[in-house]
Amino acid sequence: MSDHHLAQASALICGVRAGRGTAPIVESFFDEATNTASYVIHDPATRSAVIIDSVLDFDVASGRISRKSADKIISYVKTEGLTVGWVLETHAHADHLSAAPYLKAELGGQLAIGREIIHVQNVFGKIFNAGTEFARDGSEFDRLFDDGDHFMVGDMQAMALHVPGHTPADLAYVIGDAVFTGDTLFMPDYGTARADFPGGDSRQLFRSIRRLLSLPPETRLFLCHDYKAVGREQFVWETTVGAQRSSNVQVHEGVLEDDFVAMRNARDATLSMPKLIIPSIQVNMRGGHLPDPESNGARFLKIPLDAL
Ligand SMILES: [Fe+2]
Fold first, then answer.
1. Which intervals hold domain Metallo-beta-lactamase (predicted)?
2. How far is the CA of 183 from the centre of ligand 1 (A)?
3. How remote is the CA of residue 113 from the centroid of ligand 1, in Å?
4. Residue 286 C-alpha to ligand 1 middle, in angstroms?
5. Domains delineated in the chain
6. How far is the CA of 89 from the centre of ligand 1 (A)?
7. Tens digits of residue pLDDT in 72-123
8. Under 8 Å CB-to-CB from 49, ≥6 apart: which residues?
């Protein structure tokens, strides 16, 4: 992890806030079934857009897929007259299926994720005993971002920050003065993401979070999930670096790394697996593509026994 990249991200955010660069328009789409916030972010000057962390609706009891959530995004993009340049994932999600290939087919754009997805593909390729048709080289994606990689959204500058811990491949995306944190931080009253999936690491998560919290305090943070902390009535998924630093219940300023690691590991040991982890990972490790059809033309997802 390079602090040089973090300094570049801070400079980008400060520049936009000082009027040297465009602030993005952010529209969020919250899926209550999976507690996931998806985002469409656009440059008001060029109407160029990015989609982050889309959801494909999946009913596990019936095995039925639907596209209501993704269709809301498509209708917003069309109504606003946006051109989609990127369809981004912050990581291979374990709680919902990605609609990225569907959105890419309908709206265009390049599909991207962090380079460490190759590691995730290897781990889960083994767990699901995927065949040789699953390449495990990231080739399902159009671009694999490294820490500090820059890209453009119309005239707006954007960059990827590698924030591993929840999974080895997690990225946060800095777009103008907004940061899309993926599964690192949740709202200050709720805390942080778990770090106990295969390849997860609570110590790495702490360091990634500290890195995000060294961005300017007024930086807008857009989270991937909200679970409504006890006592809160509304779902909320936007906060700031300053609010996280002063009041995140698990990782506010002053919390020591070893104490965080002990807390996170103890808490993770009490959590059950997310309801959709088995279907989600099989689809998301393939960039959101469903497994190939079998000889009868139907597609199947596997349930590995005693593996997770
Ligand atoms: Fe996640």
1. 35-225
2. 5
3. 13
4. 15
5. 3-284 (3.60.15.10)
6. 10
7. 999 999 999 999 999 999 999 999 999 999 999 999 999 999 999 999 999 9
8. 40, 41, 42, 43, 77, 80, 82, 83, 84, 85, 153
